[in-house]
Amino acid sequence: MIIVMIPSATDQQVATVASFVERAGLKPHIMNGVERKVFGVIGQIDREFEQQAERLEGVDFVQRITKPYKLASREGREASTVKVGNVVIGGPTCVIMAGPCAVETEEQLMESARIVKAAGAHMLRGGAFKPRTGPYAFQGLAEDGLKLLAQARDATGLPIVTEVKTPSAVELVARYADMLQIGTRNMQNYDLLIEAGKSGKPVLLKRGMSSTYEEWLLAAEYILANGNPNVVLCERGIRSFEQYTRNVLDVAAIPVIKRLSHLPIIADPSHATGKWHLVEPMSYAAVAAGADGLIIEVHPNPDKAWSDGAQSLTPENFSKLMQNLQKFAIAAGRTL
Ligand code: PEP
Ligand code: MN
After folding, report:
1. What distance in Å separates the CA atoms of residue 280 and residue 286, rounded to the nearest whole number?
2. Closest ligand to 133 CA?
3. What is the CATH number of the domain that holds 15?
């Protein structure tokens, strides 16, 4: 940590800071700048020490050097991979998860599964517990939806990723799913993160729509700290003032997270844009930026979808995207 003194700090104030640091069992290294004095403080520093140091007279600000997320941090670690069934996320393959926003009917889901498998997807997505903005919208088929997902996995061999909204449902969803999705609205539902951690199942942790990278990585830290190393992050767009798109895909999040964390990161161009015709270009952008995969909404008949039809790809458009994506994956040093 560094402690930066104000330019007018007195010798007495500087001496007080030095003895405060020593009394905490830490080593103060003073540096004399042109305008001000700066302490480098070496040792294990907790939040209380940081706050107390900032309150001392003559101190301008303090700055931590190490990250508060210890297990999610890249420091001293190789990039990690997460295995979901026989699919490896974070390895040479750019992993494509695709399927409808929600599980609607047996016919709709089985057809979706066949379509995405035929186009080359590696995993099937579909929500059985839907976090809808309003209470009157379709909320999902719950356990019946999970059963259909399991049936689709049996028919196609594709591992399933599906959302879990509450801590009490983790056990149920984990019984059917290969990967638990924690949605944007629940990124800071700490009880849910803890349960997902205890389950040991791979977790797809979406970024909160107004969350910073640090908040997101601290949310991942909850899962990791509860004994589950299988966390994959998902950039799904953040809120801004623009109304044309549903959210703003933060493409820079991909290389930033790769620098800050060892966890794999994928992108969700469907929820990021809210418009089907933007899904293809944003998929290319994410893969070019180094994403370990994509999660894309595909529906056999988007016009009739019970949720998120506007951003869902038709089977033809998904198949075209998969073909065109090859070039971008290869350019990014990946295979599809
Ligand atoms: C979804 O994947 O269907 C979903 C609701 O995503 P998000 O949490 O990113 O809105
Ligand atoms: Mn959706």
Report:
1. 10
2. 1
3. 3.30.70.1140
What is the distance in A from the centroid of ligand 2 to the CA of 207?
14
> Same domain, yes or no, for 220 and 312?
yes
**C-beta of 267 in contact with ligand 1 (< 6 A):** no
Quick one: 158 and 257 in the same domain? Answer: yes
Residues at Cβ < 5 Å from ligand 2 ion: 101, 308
Instruction: Please give the number of the atom of ligand 1 that sits closest to the Cα of 268.
Output: 9
User: What are the tens digits of pLDDT across the range 143-173?
Assistant: 999 999 999 999 999 999 999 999 999 999 9
- Can you point out the beta strands (E) in 228-285? 231-235, 265-267
Residue 23 in any domain: the answer is yes
The CATH number of whichever domain residue 217 belongs to comes to 3.20.20.70
189 lines ligand 1 (CB under 6 A): no
Confirm whether 77 is domain-assigned. no
Bridging pattern class, strands 160-163 and 59-63: unpaired
Check: pTM over 0.85? Answer yes or no.
Answer: yes
Q: Which domain holds residue 305?
A: 82-331
Largest CA-CA distance found in the chain, in angstroms, rounded: 78
